[in-house]
């Protein structure tokens, strides 16, 4: 495989799509060796077919605000690869959303979903709609307008969207309502649904819980646990919330969270009611964490900064892509951080990732670490198909087992000669082999 040539061609075809190039390059670097060992992949054009989405739907979303003014946003769905199951992946509503970001997310999703062991292909969608400061009625009208286009290409056996940044239970409810009206069917076409209309227990907590289950396995390889460890979290959304709950249960102490305005350092620990306060803060739709320090005076707010300067044992980025740069990574390592597990998608820049890998600390990449979210979406699809609901304990036990299995797959494919586990390589190779073999079996399509 000629990696540089493939990358040059990709960049030429899709100039300026930097996040997409970044995600593809990372995977190709990891799998180069196994591709070279398997000439059947090369002759079947597996790499060239894998790095280009099957199709992209792009549409405009006109909607009316509470004052009667009309706005036009852009909407997308990237159906990347369905070799092992229906397209599956979240919807992101954030002003930064563009095709490059959705293609990077859709591409990552292919391998992440393969790692879950469940039959799901990869996809992603979203809009540059900014939920910040919008009323519930405005969000409802936007979601309805978005679904008026999206419904044409999704379905419970075709493509099953879910939440991501800016899309939680409320938005899924509005989207589902419109889909149901248009298609006149009540099926598992979206995941992250409310418990009363087809949702699964544990789905809201799943990404955060799964992250901590995975990090626990990583720590165990060094005979370590969360007990007594300090943990830095970024973000203050759904994923950060679930992670904080589970870290508290495992005896760790979360000392930071962050938003676009800066970060909070709470040396007393973000526990109990403070974790619930995080959700309240998020629900205000105002994109700020500063009020936390007013509510809990033992905490300090650092404006415009990121939490990676705080001395901690474990770091779990839970906000967004490229939120840890090279200098942040150096600071974390110099401060004695022993484990970084990516709950957000692609939160470390390539330079930061190299710092972590070169210093041989435990480093878990997003597609393995945060796979618990989509895995539980897969469990929601199973429950919908069976038309029954599992208990909290049943779903949690399945999620836990899936994370243990993903960890094992990473160790199997990522252990180096010196015994160091390169989880990036492990996750990329394990996910790739499954998808590539399915593509081979299905012929050139
Ligand atoms: P939420 O919208 O609930 O929270 C996202 C958090 O990140 C918010 O605090 C948000 O603040 C912050 N954030 C977003 N963009 C930026 C930015 N540019 N700079 C600083 N902070 C930012 O989303 P989730 O918790 O669902 O998602 C968090 C991460 O986890 C994302 O990377 C997502 O892709 C990933 N993920 C989510 C899964 C899920 O099931 N929800 C599953 C797997 C991964 P604000 O909105 O104010 O900018
Ligand atoms: O990035 C992700 O894996 C998600 N946002 C969850 C996707 C899903 O379909 O549950």
Q: Could you outline the blueprint of secondary structure elements for this entry?
A:
Blueprint: H1 3-13, H2 18-37, H3 39-43, H4 46-50, E1 55-64, E2 70-81, E3 87-93, H5 99-115, E4 122-127, H6 136-150, E5 159-162, H7 169-183, H8 203-220, E6 230-233, H9 238-249, E7 253-259, E8 262-265, H10 273-283, H11 291-295, E9 300-303, E10 314-316, H12 326-334, E11 339-341, H13 350-358, E12 362-364, H14 366-369, H15 371-386, H16 392-414, H17 423-442
Parallel strand pairs: 3-4, 3-5, 6-7, 6-10, 10-11, 11-12
Antiparallel strand pairs: 1-2, 2-4, 7-8, 8-9
What would you say about this model in short?
This protein has 445 residues and is an alpha/beta fold. Helix content is 48%, strand content 15%. The chain has helices at residues 3-13, 18-37, 39-43, 46-50, 99-115, 136-150, 169-183, 203-220, 238-249, 273-283, 291-295, 326-334, 350-358, 366-369, 371-386, 392-414, 423-442; strands spanning 55-64, 70-81, 87-93, 122-127, 159-162, 230-233, 253-259, 262-265, 300-303, 314-316, 339-341, 362-364.
Structural notes for this entry:
This protein is of the alpha/beta class. Among the domains are: about 55-185, Leucine Dehydrogenase, chain A, domain 1 (Rossmann fold); about 205-370, Rossmann fold. About 50% of the residues lie in helices and about 15% in strands. It has helices at about 5-15, 20-35, 40-45, 45-50, 100-115, 135-150, 170-185, 205-220, 240-250, 275-285, 290-295, 325-335, 350-360, 365-370, 370-385, 390-415, 425-440; strands at about 55-65, 70-80, 85-95, 120-125, 160, 230-235, 255-260, 260-265, 300-305, 315, 340, 360-365. The longest helix has 23 residues, at about 390-415. The two termini are about 20 Å apart. The relative contact order is 0.12. (2Z)-2-iminopentanedioic acid binds near residues 370 and 373.
